[in-house]
Design a protein that fits this description.
InterPro entries: ING_fam (IPR028651), ING_N_histone-binding (IPR024610). It holds the Pfam family ING. This is Inhibitor of growth protein N-terminal histone-binding domain-containing protein. The protein is an all-alpha fold. The chain has four helices and no strands. The chain has a single domain, classed as Four Helix Bundle (Hemerythrin (Met), subunit A), CATH 1.20.120. Helix content is 85%, strand content 0%. Helix 1 packs antiparallel against helix 3.
Length: 149
């Protein structure tokens, strides 16, 4: 497969990656905001409980404590959701990195194979000169590897 084809296929595969990352990060930010809002509620409930503990009935105290506990439970759920979302995001990026590694390995193998074919062709030519195709392939290979002439 030509160098351009590898690049084109890879770019096609990551076309939606920025949008998916942005969506996931926005969801994480939303979970953070919800958690902060709940922490504010917990603080106000705790202040209400501590400032009025002597005057509240047992049922009122129990009710406030249940509200605080429910808010903490909801915060934990939001945190768990955020961890799951972060793991999914990591796996999504990791999948693309592994694909890039695989494609690069295939590309390098193709280059080596073509280089060997080119060398075989050059050695059997009657003039003994390097073929134009082989020189061009080596140039493309060096450019792809970042080794410019």
């Amino acid at each position: 497969m030509a160098a351009g084809m590898y690049l084109e296929h890879y770019l096609d595969s990551i076309e939606n990656l920025p949008f998916e990352l942005q969506r996931n990060f926005n969801l994480m930010r939303d979970l953070d905001q919800r958690t902060e809002d709940l922490k504010g509620q917990i603080d106000s409930l705790a202040k209400e409980y501590t400032s009025n503990a002597r005057t509240l009935s047992s049922d009122q105290k129990l009710s406030l404590l249940r509200q605080i506990q429910q808010s903490y439970s909801k915060c934990k759920e939001f945190g768990d959701d955020k961890v799951q979302l972060a793991m999914q995001t990591y796996e999504m990026v990791d999948k693309h990195i592994r694909r890039l590694d695989t494609d690069l390995a295939r590309f390098e193998a193709d280059l080596k194979e073509k280089q060997i074919e080119s060398t075989d062709y050059d050695s059997t030519s009657s003039k003994g000169k390097k073929g134009v195709y082989g020189n061009r392939l080596r140039t493309v290979g060096r450019e792809a590897a970042g080794n410019f002439p």
